[in-house]
Specification:
The chain has a domain of 86 residues: Beta-lactamase Inhibitory Protein, Chain:B, domain 1 (2-Layer Sandwich). It is elongated. The chain has 4 helices and 6 strands. The protein is α+β, with helices and mostly antiparallel strands and 149 residues long.
């Protein structure tokens, strides 16, 4: 009886000498700082699509907003997500951008952003000017962020 109990308990725990290989899963649009730095106010939707690629989300209720989402789940379980949005006027010209990857000016390259996500009106920034302060999210913005949007 003791032999049977020892045999069964020995099979229940397998030593992890060799771990299985888990791949990195990458989804969405890969946006680099160089790509975002090419954005200028007044660019057409086609020019923005050429620079950043096709957006992941083009909502019919918000036709003047494109959302670019990137998610990387590494094999060790670490998840990295980035969100970036572009906003257009009624004529289809680029007005502003918001998200984790920001349009950088030459003076801003050495400084890190204060928060992870914010919106910048590209037409209001002069070369060498400071980045505008972050606006606090409203009720619905906080709710959408808590859900993962």
């Amino acid at each position: 009886m003791v032999f049977l109990a020892t045999a069964i308990s020995g099979c229940s725990s397998v030593p992890r000498i060799v771990n299985e290989y888990k791949i990195d899963v990458q989804q969405g649009n890969v946006l680099t700082q160089d790509m975002v730095s090419q954005l200028k106010p007044g660019l057409s939707k086609d020019q923005v699509r050429f620079i950043l690629g096709t957006p992941v989300l083009m909502d019919m209720f918000h036709a003047n907003r494109w959302d670019y989402v990137y998610r990387l789940q590494k094999g060790n379980g670490v998840v990295e997500t980035r969100k970036f949005s572009t906003f257009f006027d009624a004529d289809g010209k680029l007005l502003s951008v918001s998200g984790d990857v920001m349009a950088a000016q030459a003076a801003d390259a050495a400084t890190a952003p204060e928060s992870k996500s914010r919106e910048i009106d590209l037409g209001s920034i002069e070369p060498g000017a400071a980045v505008p302060p972050t606006e606090e999210r409203g009720f619905f913005g906080k709710m959408m962020e808590s859900v993962g949007f």
